């Protein structure tokens, strides 16, 4: 069977790695795309490279852009990453870890590569349940971007292909995402989710992303393989 081509946005994190496994299980030849965008650490890029290699992505590219010149986020600016927030705080409002227009920028690069490859599908690990309030993770945003994409591309306008933004995790809880990945033999020990790791790359254990990751593993009843800063696995 001829494999379909797909772009998979990869941060090296739990969600995007699960998405890669899902795309591969659906017989896609996957081209993974990551971004060095001026974020406060490169652990996620190291993880994305490792994930792509070990999971057999056809090609892996890292695009260099510098959103730190714009700032406005705890991930790209001199703003403290929030720690030890409870779930009600995490699910309320848009936190300072939101990076202005990040998914729009990332999806636009993916769109360009998809057109060159004639790949009709772009996979992204956005989630509208266990998420940190980011506006560019909402279903209506994804739908609007897909509509825009099919008005913007030469191949779409000429009827050669149409673009689909695939969001298989959109309505899953973090626990369901982990359970799905386990069924697809995802090795979560090679993924990285922490917003503020130490110099050795160990997860802080207290930022929103770490707390959501811990919660997901606990609810999935799966051992969390993450190395946190106290050298214990939760």
Compile the SSE list and pairings.
Layout: E1 4-9, H1 14-25, E2 28-36, H2 43-54, E3 59-64, H3 87-90, H4 102-117, E4 121-123, H5 139-152, H6 154-157, E5 164-166, H7 174-183, H8 208-220
Parallel strand pairs: 1-2, 1-4, 2-3, 4-5
Helix pairs in contact: 1-7, 7-8
Question: What is the assigned CATH homologous superfamily?
Answer: HUPs
Q: What percent of the residues sit in helical stretches (DSSP H or I)?
A: 25-40%
Main pleated sheet? 5 strands, parallel
Number of helices: 8
SSE succession? EHEHEHHEHHEHH
The CATH C-level name is Alpha Beta
Extended strand count: 5
Number of folding domains? 1
Secondary structure category: alpha/beta
CATH topology: Rossmann fold
Quickly give the CATH architecture.
Answer: 3-Layer(aba) Sandwich
β content, as a range?
5-15%
Q: Largest sheet, order of strands side by side?
A: 3-2-1-4-5
Return the average pLDDT rounded to an integer.
93
Q: What would you call the shape?
A: globular
Termini gap = 42 Å
Radius of gyration from CA coordinates: 17 Å
Q: What ranges have pLDDT less than 50 throughout 5 or more consecutive residues?
A: none
Summarize the structure.
The chain has 234 residues and is α/β, with parallel strands linked by helices.
Please give a structural write-up.
The chain has one domain: 3-Layer(aba) Sandwich (Rossmann fold), CATH 3.40.50. It is an alpha/beta fold and 234 residues long. Helices cover 36% and strands 12% of the residues. 40% of the residues are buried.
